[in-house]
Amino acid sequence: AYQGEASAVDPSLARVVRTPGAPDLSEAEFDKAKEIYFQRCAGCHGVLRKGATGKPLTPDITQERGQAYLEALIAYGSP
């Protein structure tokens, strides 16, 4: 199962990416998350997260389900 870690980025040097309803990320964390998504998820969930062979992962769907759901989704994939 996925175990998160504290960021190795010095917060005083990082620009912050803010998305309403989501945790703040440093620009480096956002870039890493984007890279992982395109490597591992976009093939099924689409580059716009609107779904392809996999279910849509747009914020209007994922944020309302909460963090525990998202952690399980990331660790085990979509049902």
In helices, the fraction of residues equals 40-55%
CA distance, first residue to last residue:
16 Å
Overall geometric form: globular
Low-confidence stretches: none
Cα-atom radius of gyration: 13 Å
Mean pLDDT reading: 80
Biggest beta-sheet profile: 2 strands, antiparallel
Sequence of secondary-structure elements = EEHHH
Kindly report the spatial arrangement of strands forming the biggest sheet.
1-2
The strand count comes to 2
Strand residue content: 5-15%
Q: What structural category do the secondary elements indicate?
A: mainly alpha
Number of helices: 3
Give a short synopsis of this structure.
The chain is mainly alpha-helical and 79 residues long.
Structure commentary:
The chain is mostly helical and 79 residues long. 46% of the residues lie in helices and 5% in strands. It contains three helices and two strands; from the N terminus they run E-E-H-H-H. It has helices spanning 27-40, 42-45, 59-76, and strands at residues 16-17, 25-26. The protein has a two-stranded antiparallel sheet. A hairpin with a 7-residue loop joins strand 1 and strand 2. The longest helix is centred in the last third of the chain and has 18 residues, at 59-76. The chain is globular. The mean pLDDT is 80.
